[in-house]
Structures are given as structure tokens and as C-alpha cells.
Amino acid sequence: MADTHNKEVDQISGVETTGHEWDGLKELNNPLPKWWLYLFYACIVWAVIYWVLYPSWPLVSSYTTGVLGANQRTEAIAAYDKGISDRSVFADKIVAASLEDISTDQELLQFARANGQAAFGDNCAPCHGSGGTGAEGYPNLQDDTWIWGGTLDNIHTTLEFGIRSGHDEARIGEMPAFGRDELLSREEINQVANFVASRAGLETDEGVDLAAGQTVYDDNCAACHGEDLKGIQDVGAPSLLSANYLYGKSLDAIKAQINNPRNGVMPAWVDRLDPATIKSLTVYVHSFGGGQ
Fold first, then answer.
1. Any binding-site annotation on 225?
2. Interval 39-98: pLDDT, tens
3. CA-CA distance, 291 to 130, in Å (whole number)?
4. Fewer C-beta neighbours within 10 Å, C or N terminus of the chain?
5. What pLDDT, on the 0 to 100 scale, is given for residue 85?
6. How far is 165 from 27, CA to CA, in rounded Å?
7. What pTM does this model have?
8. Is 20 labeled as ligand-binding?
9. Domains of the chain by range and CATH?
10. Annotation-wise, does 221 bind a ligand?
11. Which of 194, 226, 233, 189 is nearest to 210 (CA)?
12. Are 243 and 230 in contact (CB under 8 A)?
């Protein structure tokens, strides 16, 4: 409360004080600006009007619904249901159409790309990146180095069943651990790694017998990667002449992969996403421009 006994008129401003004083500073009793008071009163009036028109006050088990009966929850649910209904029309068409037909039908293609982009961001981007550029251990979806093929059908199969995912129809291609399981000696691993590096345009160790490395390659690696080192898509064996190596393109990385390989896993989406979404993802990923 103001100390009425200490009220006085300030000699400089001519305004009465409130009676409050701090360290010799006296508080002036200036009135609030009229514009501020009018705005404050207008807010009070608006609040009362809002209470009448819209839901506002909580009750024991419900709330006041307001004269207008507005309900954002109901409106949001209605909008969601409409969106699902509109989407289902195109989704049914996507499921019924072939991947080639979707790619040539502008209306279906536009929907598939938009739907696929949303699904990619939710499910694929954490590994492959938002633009599909990948990272070490996660394939770049924009280049032409596709271990299992980059056609629409190839991509669709990979999306459905995954790679080493545990699904009965998953793509499976595992590289043996030649060093860890003692299938090759350390010298043989060094020889074959240097042979592959020499063919891939990388620097090699001095004094290594590359001819012996080729013999090791022909006996242990050519069956999957091909005699020409260009890989075999049917078994998921990558080209060793590619500009991109999934786990790093260097002599040390090649040695590490031969010794104790990393075999990545891609989930099977057939049980997680509906058929329309998988087809949309297929078309969207293919639109990156990689593959075939």
C-alpha cells in the first residue's frame, strides 16, 4: 500500500508522489496513458464476446461450446478424413497401374513423386540423406553404381524385401571374412588388396607381387565380382572398378573389407508401408537420376 503520510508534490514535475521512496528516489503517481487504458478495456470486451461465441470455459466433465459451436478438433478430423479420401483415389490408381504406366501418366507421376518424397523423408533419409546422396556405408541413390540394379523393377524389389533384412525374399549377398575366418593368409590378403587397388587406379604398396594377387583374386573373388572386376548384380557383388566404394575407396579400406567385411542391412518395407507408398517411393527414388 502507498504511504499516504509521505505523499507530496514533486517540485520539478509537479506530479504527486505515491509515497514510495527508494534510496532517495520518489515514485511519481503518473496516470496510465489513455490509449493503453482504452486498449485494455477493449481487450476485456473482446474476451467477454469470445467467451460467448467460442468454446472457452471448462466445466466439470465438458466445456462451454459457445454460440457458434466452433470446434477445431472436429474441423481438423474432417480435413484429415477428406485428405485420406482424396489420397485413396490416387492410391488405388497407383496400386492398379504398372511402374512404367505411372512414369508416363503425368497425373499419377505427380502424385507418386509427392507421396514418395514424404515417405522418403520419414523412412529413408536418416540413412540415405535427404537428397539421396548417401554416406559411407549407405549407398548414393543419385549415381550409377547400383549393386542390385537401378531399374524401376530392381528398386521396387529392393524396397519391398530389403537387403539381408531377414525377410524370406530379401536380397542376400554376403562377402566372406577372408581374414577373420582364416580363409586367406595375411600375405594373400595384402596381395589381392593391392591387385584390386592397382586395377581401381589407387596407389599400391611397394614390392607386392601383383601377379600373385591376381591369382588369389581369380581363385576367391572372380566368381562374384567377375573376372573383369565389374561385379555381378545378380549376386549383389559391386564393381571394383567403380568410382564409388560403399565403405571407402583406399588400399586400407580394401584390406579391411577383405579381412572382416561390413555387410549392411536394409529393412524390408513390405510389412511396414502400403503398396501404394512403396510404388511411390520406387518412382521417387528412380527420379533421382541414378541407376537405369
1. yes
2. 999 999 999 999 999 988 899 988 888 898 888 888 888 888 887 777 788 889 999 999
3. 18
4. N
5. 78
6. 75
7. 0.70
8. no
9. 4-53 (no CATH), 75-167+270-286 (1.10.760.10), 186-259 (1.10.760.10)
10. yes
11. 194
12. no
